[in-house]
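Predict fold of DUF480 domain-containing protein; 223 aa.
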Amino acid sequence: MDICFSQTEARVLGCLLEKEVTTPDQYPLTLNALTTASNQKSNREPVMSLTEAEVQDTIEALKSKRIVQEVTAGFGSRVAKYQHRFCNTEFSTFQFTKQEKAIICVMLLRGPQSPGELRTRTNRLCDFTDVKEVESVLSALSEHPKGPFVVQLPKESGKRDFRYMHLFSGEVDLEELQQQAASVATGTPSSPTSERLTALEDEVSELKKEVQELKAMLESLTS
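Predicted 3D structure, encoded as tokens:
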């Protein structure tokens, strides 16, 4: 798959996919409406504070990839509105079921999630009878002939369920994630910050030993 969205591109596209279903009367979206949707504090992870200029730049990037197009609001109107052509249109490469589209939308907006979380968070976009149906759709997306579009992540320590992540922002290094999960489970530091802290603690310990030795030498000289 040749698509690789930045974090802001994924957010803007996710908002267009979402609002197309949840607020059809306001879709396509103006720049102002799209900025507001991108910066929502609910149903977004992470929460962003994008400016209209940043959203406009993102729109232009998506237009160059033929993922978004500009439409006029009506006869005589100068207000530009934007709609996606990512999937399920006559110009789209991808044709997804309603459930597949909902899962991809929520993943673009919120990142990796478990099947249970996806079932709850897609309730305004589609219906799932149970978690097993979500898992079935995830399986289809991971084995899609034009994909894969999602991947199962290594199980995190202390978590009961696997999480899944979309692949529209590039491949995921599963081996590295597995090592990180193992490090967390065993209490082994895995990040550069943790390694630096450990090194500093060792240095402090050595300095304390040297101070104690110097004190002992000083005492022996003065006695």
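Residues 192-222 form the longest helix (31 residues).
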